[in-house]
Amino acid sequence: MDIRQLETFLRIVDTGSFAAAAQTLNATQSTVSARIRELERSLGVDLFDRSQHRARLTAKGQDLVASAREIVALASRVRHRIGDKDALTGTVRLGVVGLVAITWLPKLMSALRERYPNLAVVLDMSLTATLVDKLRNGDLDLVLVTGPVVESGLQAISLGYDDFVWMCSPALAVPARKLSPAELATWPVLGLSSQSHHYPVIERWFRDASAEYRPVISCNNVRVLAELTVSCLGVSLLPRLSYHAEIAAGKLRVIDTAPRIGPVQFVALHRHTATDPIVAAVAELALETSEFERPGNA
Fold this sequence. Notes:
Blueprint: H1 3-15, H2 18-24, H3 29-43, E1 48-49, E2 56-57, H4 59-82, E3 90-96, H5 98-101, H6 105-115, E4 119-125, H7 128-136, E5 142-146, E6 154-162, E7 164-168, H8 181-184, E8 189-192, H9 199-207, E9 217-219, H10 222-230, E10 235-239, H11 244-248, E11 253-254, E12 264-271, H12 277-289
Parallel strand pairs: 3-4, 3-5, 8-9, 8-10
Antiparallel strand pairs: 1-2, 5-12, 6-12, 7-10, 7-11
Helix pairs in contact: 1-2, 1-3, 1-4, 2-3, 4-12, 6-12
């Protein structure tokens, strides 16, 4: 019995099949099967009932899960804290929301290449809900998404906050005074798609003021939304920190509203059962390279 066999065993448990485990481990299915056969031979018991389509644990297999997680977690901490960083190899499947992708993702990728040169990264950019679903289903190892996300089985690390404020082009004659949601609604509103994490927040902001949220243009990309706003097509809710350069250059203007929409948190999210040192390493670097504001660092 060795660590790699236990890691493979747990990956099968978490993904639900030998084939899915092989894909996430960047190994062949025959290699995965061989590791499990060796593990079963060393223990003298069957760990999986192979008569089923999915990898169903036997009673002995279920008994092994908790102990295997403890052993693999301990080995992971030893490798991560003491081992040679060049020895950290493998593939991490990383999901990121659009705002991270267009701001400090290149900084994170550069840091990963420098610190862990033998680590491969597979990127997936999408909306928060889609990425969290993929993480939950075992299709991704780590996601950098809009928070907060509170769910049993998932562990979140705060990456900081960005202040979302209404903006417009200075060329759009929006009054330079405090505006209510009802007053803002008289202007063309550019909004994120209904699948966006922000959509219900914006909709509630208008509804609480007895105003109707009816975006004239909707999309699921913050950068596109900002470019449409710069082009004087309407007003939109954008992250102040991420667009400070455009504000300073006079391409965008912050609209003063009452009430304001509070800051938005971003988190690095992974499954509680994740024991791969790669996940811990990438999450740690994401926190280190994040350009979002953190309490006490603003």
